[in-house]
User: What shape does this take?
Amino acid sequence: MVSGGNLVYKSPPMITCENLSLSFGGRKLFEDVTLKFVPGNCYGVIGANGAGKSTFLKVLSGVIAPTHGTISITPRERIATLKQDHFMFDEEEVLRTVMMGHNELMEVIKEREAIYAKEDFTEEDGDKASDLETRFTDLEGWEAESNAAILLSGLGISTDLHNKKMRELVDGDKVKVLLAQVLFGKPDILLLDEPTNHLDIDAIEWLEDFIMAFEKTVIVVSHDRHFLNTVCTHMTDIDFGKITLFTGNYDFWYESSQLAQRMLEDKNKKLEEKVQDLKAFITRFSANKSKSRQATSRRKLLDKLTLNDIRPSSRKYPFFGFKPNREPGDQILKCDNLSKTVDGALFFKQGHLTVDKGNRICIVGENELAVSTFYKIVAGELKPDTGDYAWGITTSQAYFPKDNALYFNDKNTTLIDWIRQYSEEKAETFVRGFLGRFLFSGEDATKKVGVLSGGEKVRCLFGKIVLTGANILLLDGPTNHLDLESITSLNSALMRFQGVILFSSHDHEFNQSLANRVVEITENGFVDYRMTYDEYLTEKKKKKSK
Assistant: This one.
């Protein structure tokens, strides 16, 4: 704090990391990291799986101590961290759970409740109660319940749920309450680990608007590219055992790392040509994502970049090379009068759908089980209660199920043997080379499928799909469990795919970049929107506002 005359200047609140290092079991996640996170910015933390993104947030919050170095936080600044344990507050009421996000206020509330519950209220208790009332007012305790209710309503938790116990809520609503908890009470620093997981589109948009209006510091880990592109002013990249700060959102980071790689490989290119490439690149990206409140300041920051500010990444991207064995004809799929009830619950009735050549249809619906059931029916794994469907004679289908456990029943099968069963070419050199395209090289190719992670299983299934040469792809949750690199590669590959795609995903960027048609599955049938995903969202908002 610096004073001058009658003025007092307070240092801006920030987190400072100096010479930070962290090792686990002899393995260094990062070392000698010196960074500053300042208010008014949103920092997206990115890195390959296992790089230490969530661990870094735990270091910043004080849950994990660094091996070396220090973390300094401006005194009296309050850090709020998103809780990951959905059962931690099961016996608490929803409103009170949100208010527990402000520890100091909750301590005052508990003391206040205890002292007023005393039967033998003394003069000393009166003095203490007076002090508590002052603190309660200073901490905006009188507005706490209404502020918590506003957060809950914004995230889509209806008022009839506000006084229920947390254990009475479905998992998706518990996630929203925990998110409201971390946002409650005007924290100075937000640490958010995968905040969009399990959120619906409306809740994600509300959160985006909240963060863009938030004037303090946000540090977020997310696999949602649209979210990172919308809210982030900077990317914090964990790579090469370092943590480096880059100006711009995720798309800018990705494209600039690709540009840096091309520049590195093109040794014959003159410096002036590289400078011109950089200027053109910055011009193209500076005004991108104009919705964001940070767009103007981001442009100013990007305009200051130099060639030394962009660097290639060490990331490896899988190659999803979808090539249909034949082009599909004009007749693709026709569904007539499809109905299905499961365990007494009506999923849909009298559903009609005609899929045309060139369609990339995003299948949506409030009931995800109903959406998955539709895929199972047209994939031939489940029979409808009524109606029928017919595929065109020139079509061949490949199905990606949301639940892939059945494909990995034999846990002792090696990855080489697992993929070989789907390949016409059985030679080990071919199979190993093929697996290498999906980032399973060397000893990884001999892993047992029983030890594969969720993301690795998804890459395996896409390897199987590539080998089919199908011209119709049925993809139920294809981005689940994948890291950013794999999602980006899959997205690009599907944009190049020459066949027809029916897909469902929570990834906004994925949906918008691919879909030229949206079909909504409801209890009363299928509602067809012949438009892009963003246009569909706009249409839905218009209907809700009427």
